[in-house]
Specification:
mainly beta, Jelly Rolls, Thrombin, subunit H, 4 helices, 68 strands, 45% strand, elongated
Length: 842
């Protein structure tokens, strides 16, 4: 029998360089190509070579020295947040924490977020609601918590949405509707209870709708100026609005004679009333000389006396001392006269006030009136109004003007077509609900029940007001009733809740938005409602069709658009709306996240609605591994899908997963444009679980560490067979050596190398650990080759009775602490003699 051939060992090599295929943890490493890693943690393969993920940086928050504000923000229950940008380009985040609202306004000069509370005073939302949804619609951020009346934030203040038609005022005077664009002031029976710059309806006293109006006055109830006016006329006098109140002119010194009547049979000091005619320019504030005469013109008695003026009787009273010898009982038949000596300089007429509103005063009676300005003159001042005599006195009692000024938006103008008893009523706005989205110029909102949805009015519609260029129409729901049947719509599913509302991306249309998609857990519905108001009004029912069956979305915040597709977290993984529709009729349809399936397969299904995702730096970042905490539901993992591995004029490599990133306890991840630059931030729980913080996810190469902490990242390779192409003829190998080539060094880096024989051994076997030094003054920052040396020969697999460095295929693991890029890893092995066929077990 011939001797067996002599065994000749041969040296074999294998390498890792190109990782453009990213991670695929869903397949066994034995089945992967060498350009695809089995696991990537805190790494990225963007550009083809491996390096660490982009760093994280904690954002600075300025609580303006208010410790109560800081504690409320940092220690409450996270409910939701949203990026918000006002009409002036000011960028901020708004956060709902324990029912209170906070704005984090970005300061361009310092790069710091200034925190202020914007909660409606004495009206917060419930503090224990687990989730709040927010979205921006024109200039307003809409905030829903699934039970409370929505809150509208306009960049300055928050207010609640109007929910019902409520009478805000009732007219007390006849008025006319002006032309469209003109204003009318209505007198009301009581204070106007609405707000300025809001939409109202006007209805006449029979309930007929007179049209939409906008309230103008920012303060529709205010204090007026009041005075006491006495009518000195013998007839009632009607005073028109805006009549001047005038103190008459004084011609100067005059002497007039008037008749006096004195009681008979009296003597001593008695009041004497001087009858008409009475001088109109009498100075009632001083004294004058009064002399009494007999029928022959002889002075009986008299002198300088103090006088009192009675404006109601237009008479003068003086206290006169009658001598005993001139008792009037003895002077029957006397005609008693007096001369008034009045000495005053001439004065012109003076307007001291102007009346406000029309009024009527009965003859010789008094009433409070309203003036346009305060009367500050003397009490009991004789005045004329439109030639009629009055007496005016100051009053300190306040007047409330029950009036409101309205701008006509749609009313038909006419004379006296606003009768007494007409009502000013509020116009309902968006109702309470859950998630929502601003699509094709309307707000689409899921109802509180989770299965109904409504559409708000279209932007610039008739329910908008000129104060906001009619953009505030989006806050109202007047057009929803124009549909046949009106009211809300429902998804025709078997009791499943709506989880997300989003628009289909469509090119070559004005807004880039197509049909509205409503996601439940297992079904996606398409609502093809026209953005045109006329078409909307004539629509009998929006076209609501099933767009996808079997795979729906779990949450609003984890459903995002990218180019012409929608990516969303489904119950079984991450899915593409476009690919799910393409593969709908194929057996064995799988999610588009098989590459990261081991990471997400254990996620708590009941918490998936709290996940979030963003498109940033040409990646999709989606949270994973949700968990409970005192601060709310958080995720300790980000899944990174890289859309831009290698791009050139010759083509573009397909998207690939960068694996998983950790290091943050994420409550919600968000993006926003700050000073013209898109940036990504995450509200997080601190590493010691003591407070809520804000961290930024930087772009590639923006920094080299996480705020001074080197990033720890790793790669687990495919199983390498050392280029043995014919698997039936594969030799048994022994690992001899290896080397790594790196560049982009900026600081010392620690490296650990492990291996796993046959890619199925249960644990990783340590091979070598070393530090790559770095001298910042002369170091070029790359190392062409760093050898590993031969693995230990005395590390055994006792069960199978062989050294662990012997293998048929070998998987490798590299853990790096610090910043560098791996450009090549090479491994050397030698073939070893083995039995042609293994012996059976003993």
């Amino acid at each position: 029998m011939p001797n067996p051939p002599t065994f000749t060992p041969k040296y074999l090599y294998d390498y890792l360089r190109d990782f453009t295929a990213g991670q695929h943890a869903g397949l066994d490493p034995l089945l992967l190509p060498r350009n695809q890693a089995s696991v990537l943690i805190n790494a990225t393969s963007r550009g083809g070579f491996l390096t660490h993920r982009p760093p994280y940086s904690q954002a600075s928050l300025d609580f303006q020295g208010d410790d109560n504000l800081r504690v409320a923000f940092q220690t409450g229950l996270w409910q939701g947040g949203q990026f918000y940008q006002d009409d002036y380009g000011n960028a901020s985040f708004v956060a709902s924490i324990s029912g209170r609202l906070f704005q984090l306004l970005f300061d361009i000069g310092t790069g710091i977020f200034v925190v202020r509370e914007i909660t409606i005073q004495n009206d917060p939302n419930p503090p224990a609601v687990p989730q709040v949804w927010m979205w921006q619609s024109e200039r307003w951020l809409i905030i829903n918590d699934g039970q409370s009346t929505p809150i509208f934030f306009d960049g300055n203040t928050c207010r609640r949405a109007v929910q019902v038609e409520e009478v805000l005022g009732t007219t007390s005077m006849l008025a006319s509707i002006p032309a469209i664009g003109a204003v009318v002031t209505l007198q009301l029976t009581a204070n106007f209870s609405g707000q300025s710059n809001t939409l109202v309806r006007l209805r006449d006293n029979t309930g007929v709708d007179l049209g939409f109006f906008q309230t103008i006055n920012s303060q529709v109830t205010y204090n007026g100026y009041q005075a006491l006016l006495s009518n000195a006329s013998d007839n009632p006098v009607t005073v028109p609005d805006q009549s001047p109140v005038v103190i008459p002119s004084n011609p100067g010194t005059t002497n007039q004679v008037g008749i006096v009547g004195v009681q008979r049979n009296v003597s001593g000091t008695v009041p004497v009333t001087l009858q008409a005619p009475v001088p109109a320019n009498l100075d009632t504030g001083g004294s004058t000389r009064i002399d009494f005469y007999d029928n022959n013109g002889n002075v009986l008695f008299g002198g300088t006396l103090a006088i009192t003026w009675s404006p109601l009787t237009q008479s003068i009273t003086a206290l006169v001392t009658v001598p005993p010898n001139y008792a009037f009982t003895a002077k029957v038949g006397y005609t008693i006269k007096t001369t008034f000596g009045i000495n005053r300089a001439p004065t012109p007429a003076q307007t001291v006030a102007t009346t406000f509103g029309q009024f009527t005063i009965a003859a010789h009676s008094s009433q409070l009136i309203q003036l346009n300005s305060p009367y500050t003159g003397a009490d009991n001042q004789g005045v004329t109004i439109n030639g009629n005599p009055f007496v005016i006195s100051k009053s300190t009692a306040p007047i409330v003007t029950n009036a409101v000024t309205l701008l006509n938006l749609t009313g038909t103008s006419g004379t006296n077509n606003i009768p007494v008893g007409s009502t000013v009523v509020s116009v309902p706005e968006l109702p309470p609900g859950r998630m929502g989205a601003y699509i094709m110029g309307r707000n689409w909102v899921c109802g509180v029940d989770g299965q109904s949805f409504i559409a708000g009015d279209i932007v610039n519609g008739v329910s908008g007001t000129p104060a906001f260029n009619r953009r505030d129409a989006v806050l109202h729901v007047t057009e929803n009733s124009l549909l046949a049947g009106g009211g809300a719509f429902r998804v025709p599913s078997s009791g499943e809740d709506i989880r997300a509302i989003i628009a289909t991306p469509v090119l070559d249309v004005s807004l880039g938005q197509g049909p509205i998609l409503l996601f439940t857990k297992t079904i996606v519905f398409s609502c093809n409602a026209s953005p045109d108001r006329t078409t909307w009004q004539n629509t009998t029912n929006p076209i609501l069709t099933v767009a996808l069956i079997g795979n729906g979305a779990e949450g609003q915040n984890s459903t995002v658009t990218e180019n012409s597709d929608i990516l969303f977290r489904s119950l079984d993984g991450i899915r593409s709306y476009m690919l799910s529709r393409i593969n709908f009729d194929k057996w064995g349809q799988t999610p588009q996240s098989f590459e990261v399936q081991p990471t997400i397969i254990s996620d708590d299904e009941g918490l998936l609605q709290f996940g979030s995702a963003v498109i940033f730096n040409n990646r999709m970042l989606m949270t994973a591994h949700p968990q409970h905490s005192d601060f709310g539901i958080y995720n300790d993992t980000l899944i990174s899908l890289n859309f831009d591995l290698v791009s050139s004029l010759r083509g573009k490599a397909p998207s690939a997963y960068d694996g998983t990133w950790n290091g943050l306890n994420i409550l919600q991840i968000l993006t926003g444009t700050f000073n013209g630059t898109q940036r990504c931030f995450a509200f997080c729980i601190s590493s010691d679980f003591s407070s809520i913080q804000l961290w930024e996810v930087l772009k590639d190469n923006a920094a080299t560490d996480d705020d001074g902490n080197p990033i720890v990242w790793e790669m687990q390779s495919a199983a390498l067979n050392f280029t043995q192409q014919d698997k039936s003829m594969e030799d048994m190998l022994r690992l001899l050596d290896g080397e790594i080539s790196v560049d982009s060094l900026t600081a010392p880096v620690s490296v650990q190398i492990f291996y796993k024989p046959d890619a199925i051994y249960p644990t990783w076997v340590p091979w070598v650990a070393f530090t790559i030094g770095f001298d910042g003054t002369t170091d070029p920052g790359f190392r062409p080759e760093i050898g590993f040396g031969e693995p230990p020969s005395d590390v055994f697999d006792d069960t199978n009775n062989r050294p662990l460095r012997e293998f048929s295929v070998m998987q490798f693991r590299i853990i790096v602490t610090g910043h560098m890029r791996i450009t090549l890893v090479r491994f050397k092995a030698t073939s070893i003699p083995v039995l042609d066929i293994a012996r059976p077990p003993s």
